[in-house]
């Protein structure tokens, strides 16, 4: 595991095991990592929902103004999402959208995970 802070980089060795969960908005961008994954998920939330969540969070938790959040979103967050994150969803095995039909996707994910775990059979 790689942990980055302001002043240092720390690593932690992860021993082989039946299941390792990786997460991150850019995790599917790396071809070498994708090749190591048995199952790749992409949470595909509508951009208007993302903006609303960001506005609520940044105003309530970070003391930011609506204008500052919108400037950041339109200036960097949205363009970088379109350039780097959005294209990576093509590598996902399953897209999770947050809609009712995700119950079916959740069942598939659970079945795939159970198949990977040695004690689940």
Task: Draw up the topology in text.
Blueprint: E1 2-4, E2 9-11, H1 31-36, E3 41-43, H2 47-62, H3 66-88, E4 94-96, H4 102-116
Parallel strand pairs: 3-4
Antiparallel strand pairs: 1-2
Helix pairs in contact: 2-3
Structure, described:
The chain has 4 helices and 4 strands; from the N terminus they run ββαβααβα. The mean pLDDT is 87. The chain starts with a strand and ends in a 5-residue tail after the last helix. 2% of the residues are buried. It is mainly alpha-helical.
Which key features would you list for this structure?
mainly alpha; two-stranded parallel ribbon; single chain; 4 helices; Rossmann fold; 50% helix; 121 residues; two-stranded antiparallel ribbon
């Amino acid at each position: 595991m790689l942990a980055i802070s302001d002043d240092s980089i720390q690593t932690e060795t992860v021993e082989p095991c039946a299941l390792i969960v990786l997460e991150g908005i850019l995790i599917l961008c790396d071809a070498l990592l994708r090749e190591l994954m048995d199952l790749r998920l992409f949470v595909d939330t509508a951009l208007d929902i993302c903006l609303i969540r960001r506005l609520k969070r940044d105003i309530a938790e970070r003391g930011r103004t609506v204008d500052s959040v919108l400037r950041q979103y339109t200036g960097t967050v949205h363009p970088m999402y379109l350039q780097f994150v959005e294209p990576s969803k093509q590598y996902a095995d399953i897209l999770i959208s947050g809609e009712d039909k995700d119950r079916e996707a959740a069942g598939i994910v659970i079945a795939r995970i159970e198949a990977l775990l040695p004690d689940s059979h």
